[in-house]
Predict the structure.
Amino acid sequence: EVQLLESGGGLVPPGGSLRLSCAASGFIFSSSAMSWVRQAPGKGLEWVSSISATGGRTFYADSVKGRFTISRDSSKNTLYLQMNSLRGDDTAVYYCGQEIWFENWGQGTLVTVSS
Amino acid sequence: QSVLTQPPSASGTPGQRVTISCSGSSSNIGSNYLYWYQHLPGTAPKLLIYRNDQRPSGVPDRFSGSKSGTSASLAISGLRSEDEADYYCAAWDDSLSGLLFGGGTKLDVL
């Protein structure tokens, strides 16, 4: 059974940083692209970033480009999202997903950017 | 503002068939696969349809997807109360090099 477990969310002031993690199990992590999507309160789903299976290619939404960095550690079966220069509109539940098309989803972790 | 356009709401009564549309352009739906997701409040979204019209194992055949040109549709037949959820379409966009989601459609089962 595929399991994706996000962690690292919390309350952070504007301009601060946070690193999200997504621990994966139940599939061959090193063979799957991975992605992050978010949902702001009362809003729809917004794709954030994706990374290829090897980690050699990364993709970002314009809204986070230059501030967020996606990475992966296949030795730990873990996906990361380093978030810097956080703003109020980054407040959202962040979900990690298997593949670019989110074949499987984690339960999400809440990030709140507020002073 | 979503580049993939969905109606904000849809409704039906138990047993009915409802369809949800998703409209895009040549750089997304017109040239890439279309995906559908079901999202119940407080839970993780779930992949409902992949590659335009394929159902993952465990998804009832009451759910079906189709695509034509730059538009796609999700059809739900034999509507049930547990189908009440938000539904999102998504497709890769070649111009943006990113995944686009529709704005979501809230389905009410009356």
Notes: Chain B has no helices and nine strands. The longest strand of chain B covers residues 85-93. Chain B touches chain A at residues 2, 33, 35, 37, 39, 43-47, 50, 56, 86, 88, 90, 92, 96-104 (CB under 8 Å).
